[in-house]
Amino acid sequence: MNRRRIRALAKKEFIQISRDPRSLALGIAIPVLLLILFGYALTLDVDNVPMVIWDQDNSQTAKNFILNFRNSRYFQIIGYYDNYPDMVEQIDHGKALIAMVLPKDFSRDIRSNEQAPVQFLIDGSDSNTATIARGYIASVVATYNRNNLMHALQNMSIVNPEPVNFRPRPWFNPNFESRIFIVPGLIVVIITIIAALLTSMTVAREWERGTMEQLIATPVKPGELIVGKFIPYFCIGFFDLLLSVVAAKFIFGVPIRGSLLLLFALSSLFLTGALAMGIYISIAARSQLLASQMAMLTTFMPTFLLSGFLYPIWNMPVAIQAVTYLIPARYYIVILRGIYLKGVGIRDLWLQSVFLFLYAAIMVTLAKRKFKKKVA
User: Which strands make up the sheet holding 98-102, listed edge to edge?
Assistant: First the structure.
């Protein structure tokens, strides 16, 4: 290795960077952005688990038992209900992770020193979070049983050492298998990568190769150019979607409990928006390197960290939660996991579908307006 040539190349690279303020700004902005995202959004602690309750007993004894969960920092009681369908709806929509049901004879069983069964319905879609939440429940119940025993011993009375019988029933993913939770989210990541990163360089490549001037000289309209570039990548993206669905089913063993037609329809909507966003980035950047960097910042990294792919959104700081509403992948992940794990239909996913439609419409409009048939 020739040190002189290495030194010359390094000097040339520094000069090149200093002459490109946009790349220099991205070189500073990317580390700062990653520090902020990882520092605030990435957390392995599970606090404030959303819980709904159906208290059929409605006695002081039952209220005292519920108070153990209310006073715990690991749970957040978001509502009380008097039937199963309303609680199931909260779990299906992802608003609650746990539903607790106290039987009508709860206080009587406690007073008669019998075991009082308490049912906990747990959303097992996110196996890691569900496992941790299940441990929290067991800890709270064990603490209640221990305090109840100590109180009885102080009063010199006979008491059942375990008056509450903990009966968890995980839904959607009974065995807490991680791949059943992760694979639907991976489909979102794959579609995002294919759509945004590939299309982000299409128009920029034309500018760098000098062929854009030839296209401008033709009668082709801006909308026609965008659609012409959109179709091939839509076919590639849809093929990758089909490949991912087949692999999820036959390689990873992830069941599809909902409508396959609905999955492809709503996936096409997300794919359209992501492709249009990539084309918009490519038109704005006019440089393949800058376009790829912008696509990575605006799509790939937010999908990983702020969409709920790996970390529950409700466990993030409030400010970060507000930012997640701007991430289209957030709504797409809810759709895929709802169709894959819960078997829900358009009736439960209409709101996410509306957001994806608005996302696609906005990005297509922006891309069309951004492209001008001018050299400068």
Answer: 75-80, 49-55, 98-102, 116-123, 164-171
pLDDT: is 294 or 214 the higher one?
A: 294
Question: CA 108, CA 117: separation in Å to the nearest integer?
Answer: 12
Number of H helices, E strands in the chain: 17, 5
CA distance 347 to 115: 40
Rounded Cα–Cα distance for residues 113 and 169 (Å): 24
Domains and CATH numbers, the chain: 49-171 (3.40.1710.10), 178-370 (no CATH)
pLDDT band at residue 218 under the 50/70/90 scheme:
low
Q: What is the DSSP letter of 93?
A: T
Count the alpha carbons within 13 Å of 164 in the hemisphere toward its beta carbon. 29
- What's the pLDDT score for residue 355? 95
* DSSP H or E stretch at residue 5: helix 3-18
* Tokens of residue 82, six digits: 């008097």
Any idea which of 144-153, 248-257, 317-326, 344-353 has the lowest mean pLDDT? 144-153
